[in-house]
């Protein structure tokens, strides 16, 4: 067997891929110092196109590589995340883009202090843009509870899972040149925690005075933000009950988030029967 054939036949060590992604996270010149949040968003937008009725969309295929999906408004800015992963794809050519993007979501959450998220390999990339999903499958931040339920029920989630997943907004920020909104949700946007829920309940959220789209800022400092879709979680009785539970009990949030995020990343994926479920050690620990 030739050397490269032997290398190709060697099963991929996913912890090595995990470690390579973990090493690429920090950059003091980017946003709050980490690419972690934008990688979580890439993994979520790749998966959140799933439609349980037609079985279309989901992380399988990595169709966001192609136009028109790469140009959908909701995906603005995600080329930053895709480009960051390109050298890792080159280093580990055996991994599919769709596995790489979903693994990157797991790495980012774990490395930023979040829960361990079990992960399965087995996604296959689509060859052409024919598999792209239509625009409009991801949530619209200007809308409220009815819209959130329509979007997430279509994927097969319930109210508790919707709230758990939204807790990822502890991470990262809005960018005026991407979504049009501005600012972070929490004071520690590179640490995974339950602070999003705590702040939703503890702060007074008032309309931001600006010419941009309607969003809220915290009255006390004006430095944090909430989208209309975030505030919907405290304006709906059922959603609010889960917000209160997660604000009080971070362990419960971590456990529920890990389960919901794994489910999100697996929506519609036809895993091979023998696909192992893997868990990874933190590289930074
Ligand atoms: Fe989100 N999100 N998200 N979000 N999101 C944005 C940024 C992040 C909505 C709207 C927005 C989830 C659910 C929702 C992240 C993870 C998740 C932005 C700003 C908007 C707008 C984009 C920009 O300007 O860069 C709406 C509406 C929903 C409805 O539920 C879910 C679910 C997840 C993951 C589980 C993360 C992380 C970010 C930060 C990205 C960054 O670049 O910092």
Write the layout of secondary structure elements.
Layout: H1 3-9, H2 14-23, H3 36-47, H4 79-91, H5 97-111, H6 145-155, H7 159-166, E1 173-174, E2 183-184, H8 195-202, E3 205-207, E4 216-218, E5 225-226, H9 228-231, H10 237-248, H11 250-266
Antiparallel strand pairs: 1-2, 3-4, 4-5
Bound molecules: ligand CCH.
Ligand CCH is lined by residues 37-38, 40-41, 44, 77, 139, 141, 148, 165-166, 168-169, 171-175, 178-179, 181, 227, 229, 261.
Keywords: Heme, Iron, Metal-binding, Mitochondrion, Oxidoreductase, Peroxidase, Transit peptide
Protein name: Peroxidase
Main location: mitochondrion
Descriptive account of the structure:
The longest helix has 17 residues. The termini are far apart. The mean pLDDT is 96. The protein has eleven helices and five strands; from the N terminus they run H-H-H-H-H-H-H-E-E-H-E-E-E-H-H-H. The strands form two sheets. It has a three-stranded antiparallel β-sheet. A two-stranded antiparallel sheet has the order 1-2. Helix 2 crosses helix 5 and helix 3 crosses helix 5. It has two domains: 142 residues, Peroxidase, domain 1 (Orthogonal Bundle), CATH 1.10.520; 115 residues, Peroxidase, domain 2. The protein is globular and about 65 Å long. 42% of the residues are buried. Helix content is 41%, strand content 4%. The chain is mainly α. Bound molecules: ligand CCH. The site of ligand CCH has 24 residues, from helix 3, helix 7 and strand 1.
């Amino acid at each position: 067997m030739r050397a490269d054939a032997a290398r190709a036949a060697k099963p991929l060590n996913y912890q090595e891929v995990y470690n390579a992604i973990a090493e690429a996270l920090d950059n003091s010149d980017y946003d709050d110092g980490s690419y972690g949040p934008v990688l979580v968003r890439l993994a979520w937008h790749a998966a959140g196109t799933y439609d349980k009725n037609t079985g279309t969309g989901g992380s399988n295929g990595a169709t966001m590589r192609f136009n028109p999906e790469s140009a959908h408004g909701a995906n603005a800015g995600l080329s930053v995340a895709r480009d960051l992963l390109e050298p890792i794809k080159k280093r580990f050519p055996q991994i599919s883009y769709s596995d790489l993007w979903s693994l990157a979501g797991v790495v980012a959450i774990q490395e930023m202090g979040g829960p361990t998220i079990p992960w399965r390999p087995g996604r296959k990339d689509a060859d052409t843009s024919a598999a792209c999903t239509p625009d409009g499958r991801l949530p619209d931040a200007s809308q409220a509870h009815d819209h959130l339920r329509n979007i997430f029920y279509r994927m097969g989630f319930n109210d508790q899972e919707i709230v758990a997943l939204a807790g990822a907004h502890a991470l990262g920020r809005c960018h005026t040149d991407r979504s049009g909104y501005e600012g972070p949700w929490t004071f520690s946007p590179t640490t995974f925690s339950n602070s999003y829920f705590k702040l939703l309940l503890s702060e007074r959220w008032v309309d931001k005075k600006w010419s941009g789209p309607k969003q809220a800022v915290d009255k006390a400092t004006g430095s944090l933000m909430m989208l209309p879709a975030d505030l919907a979680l405290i304006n709906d009785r059922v959603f609010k009950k889960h917000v209160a539970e997660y604000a009080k009990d971070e362990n419960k949030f971590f456990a529920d988030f890990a389960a919901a995020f794994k489910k999100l990343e697996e929506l519609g994926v036809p895993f091979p029967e023998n696909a192992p479920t893997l868990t990874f050690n933190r590289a930074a620990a």
